[in-house]
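Please describe what follows:
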Amino acid sequence: MDHLDVFWWLKSFHVYSILIFIIISLFFLIFYIVRVRLWCNCEICHAYITTSWSSQFINLCDWYTHLLKKTPTRTIHIHVLGNIITSNPQNVEYMLKTRFDNYPKGKTFSTILGDFLGRGIFNVDGDLWRFQKRMSSLELGKVSIRSYAFEVVKNEIDKRLIPLLDEYKQGGVLDFQDVFRRFSFDCICRFSFGLDPKCLESSLPISQFALSFDLASKLSAKRAMTTLPIVWKINRFFNIGSEKELREAIKVINILAQEVIRQKRKLGFSNHRDLLSRFMGSISDETYLRDIVISFLLAGRDTIASALTSFFYVIGNHPEVTKSIREEANRVLGTNEDLTSFEQMSELHYLQACVYESMRLYPPIQFDSKFCLEDDFLPDGTFVKKGTRVTYHPYAMGRMEELWGCDALEFKPQRWLKDGFFVQENPFKYPVFQAGLRVCLGKEMALVELKSVALSLLRRFHVELAQPYHHTPRFSPGLTASFNGGLLISVREISP
């Protein structure tokens, strides 16, 4: 290369460098302007929402309940959020059954939770959803897998949960929400993956994976609450703010999920009883398996922990209910006799009623959203424009007097009993386990876990709230309901 070529090369390089610098500068300038404008708009939206409910209600879900009660159709349109919210059972049935195909999760929802849940069953539609539903239904419906689930739960109760509470029966306070998160995390890992994280050991070890899982759930929910999606998308592109935290949390989650899968392949999975081993016989895609692992965890950990926390919250305020649960157990099982099989659960009608009543008032999933594919009208006459987010609200539905009577705000297990037997309600009136084609596949095993814990603890301990909770609990943001600050309790051994 001669001197002239070098000169022109340097000159060209200099020109291109200046052009690249100008383009980058313009990009950042546009980003700054857009971000400032979006921030201002979001602040306006946030101010509108906040000033509308924070002075009267401590939770957004209570504000929505208030608004829904005031409308004859029990359906509202929050225009600033582009969201239709309903507590009308006819609308719920229409979305989840009658016009199921017109109300999928949708690309918007899948994008919001895509980094966290990937292609897991809770975040997909169409063939991917049908495949996972079919596989899960086949496995979870087997007597052998239900017996295995009961065995895992009973072992965790006997070997860890009860010994832990024994250490506190002479004094001290426990956060039951934290305890139940650890308990349900151990159970779902053992049941689904054949892995024991030992989170409920007496030393209560800190699990980096569990912490990352909580953070990813919280930050993913924050995305869903963002009025303008471009805000979080820009943050993700530049890896800043909460999006940077989310990315780091998901890295930790992915490492453990990949290690679980690697260990399964190394040890062989054809003869294992856990759920993941059964899926691995049909799926080889590592990323897809990772997404299924995360979905199992979300279904089996957070919802169970939420339901147990709420159950002991309401039980703590109703000691007469605890007395009735013990009396039924003594009558059905025998004094001081433990549950020995999955089948015995069906005879505990009052306990079943208590669990359902607790979740009526405090559902683990307070609301669920779909996105309308084509212009439509809901049964109550509400017009739904294509692309609109439509949310049904189990939390609000549990507080509607026309559905549950003038005592809808009261905890009354007897509303579920007829002549001493538990009676199911219309699932579209009580969509705590969803309903229609997307009904919760693990419903029966979740109920076994909830009732096993409730029965085991209430027959051994006096469980009391460590501080008065006279107000409605304040909930923390997340994909599942959780008490802000946990649930502090004390335990005393029942005198012989």
